[in-house]
């Protein structure tokens, strides 16, 4: 039986310890370059069911706590829990508040009791989870009947301009791999949660040059974390070839970087 929780290539997602370490290192610089993250999280907030009033919510993969604070302001009478696998992110988020508790944990094995939350919010975190079926199973376990899981993630087609440019430059893997949208659909359909909405929308950012994009990815902690990525420094000749290849994508606004964003709202049946 095909394991739909993984991308087509075995071992295509990075080790979660590398993910945690990378995002911990990026905690101080993350918010300064998180335009996409703020836009996507805002879109996800707007997709929450009207009138939702959870007694307890979980921000799963809270990062610097930007949306924990937004949830806290939006739901002042609720009890908030912010969770992340990266201790560095939690250390950054905790003093800024927004949630009652900040805890280290893995979305594939949540350290929470059965039926303990009414809302799980997760923006641009679950793409780093190798076993998304486990994420959905844990959400089903932790949610109260009638509770909602709202997540935003990334799918195949993300950073395709950068991927194609590196392929032309040296043929090596420099860009993180992501699941297909169909895989998200199949896993959500099989999760036991009712799919209220599931859609894919492109989000395009523009940059004056390639270095601005790669600097931002590093500041976000979202640079290349693939197993089998090339080691050592990237040589000048390869960088020059990358720049030349990427220039073919230039638009009037600058060099485009396209993110294929998955938005989903799922509900646990009563």
TrEMBL record:
Question: Which pathway does the UniProt entry assign to this protein?
Answer: Cofactor biosynthesis; biotin biosynthesis
Tell me which EC number(s) this protein carries: 2.1.1.197
Q: Which UniProt keywords apply?
A: Biotin biosynthesis, Methyltransferase, S-adenosyl-L-methionine, Transferase
Which GO molecular function terms does the record list?
carboxyl-O-methyltransferase activity; malonyl-CoA methyltransferase activity; S-adenosylmethionine-dependent methyltransferase activity
Annotated SUPFAM superfamilies: S-adenosyl-L-methionine-dependent methyltransferases (SSF53335)
Q: What NCBIfam families does the annotation carry?
A: BioC
The entry's function note states: Converts the free carboxyl group of a malonyl-thioester to its methyl ester by transfer of a methyl group from S-adenosyl-L-methionine (SAM). It allows to synthesize pimeloyl-ACP via the fatty acid synthetic pathway.
The family annotation for this protein states: Belongs to the methyltransferase superfamily.
Indicate what this protein is called per its UniProt record. Malonyl-[acyl-carrier protein] O-methyltransferase
Species annotation: Pseudomonas rhodesiae
The primary gene name is: bioC
């Amino acid at each position: 039986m095909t394991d739909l929780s993984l991308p087509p290539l075995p071992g295509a997602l990075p080790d979660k310890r590398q993910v945690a370490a990378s995002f911990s290192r990026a905690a101080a610089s993350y918010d300064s370059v998180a335009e996409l993250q703020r836009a996507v999280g805002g879109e996800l907030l707007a997709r929450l069911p009207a009138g939702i009033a959870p007694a307890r919510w979980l921000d799963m993969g809270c990062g610097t706590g930007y949306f924990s604070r937004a949830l806290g302001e939006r739901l002042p009478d609720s009890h908030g829990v912010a969770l992340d696998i990266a201790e560095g992110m939690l250390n950054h988020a905790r003093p800024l508040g927004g949630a009652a508790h900040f805890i280290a944990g893995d979305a594939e094995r949540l350290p929470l009791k059965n039926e303990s939350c009414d809302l799980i919010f997760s923006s641009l975190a679950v793409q780093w989870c190798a076993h998304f079926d486990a994420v959905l199973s844990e959400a089903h376990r932790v949610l109260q009947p009638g509770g909602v899981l709202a997540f935003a993630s990334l799918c195949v087609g993300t950073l395709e301009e950068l991927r194609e440019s590196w392929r032309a430059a040296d043929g090596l893997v420099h860009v993180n791999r992501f699941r297909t949208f169909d895989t998200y659909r199949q896993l959500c359909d099989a999760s036991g949660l009712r799919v209220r909405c599931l859609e894919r929308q492109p989000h395009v950012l523009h940059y004056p040059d390639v270095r601005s994009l790669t600097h931002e990815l590093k500041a976000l902690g979202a640079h290349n974390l693939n197993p089998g990525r090339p080691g050592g420094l990237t040589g000048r000749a390869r960088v020059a070839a990358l720049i030349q290849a990427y220039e073919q994508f230039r638009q009037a606004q600058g060099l485009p970087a396209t993110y294929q964003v998955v938005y989903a709202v799922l509900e646990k049946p009563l």
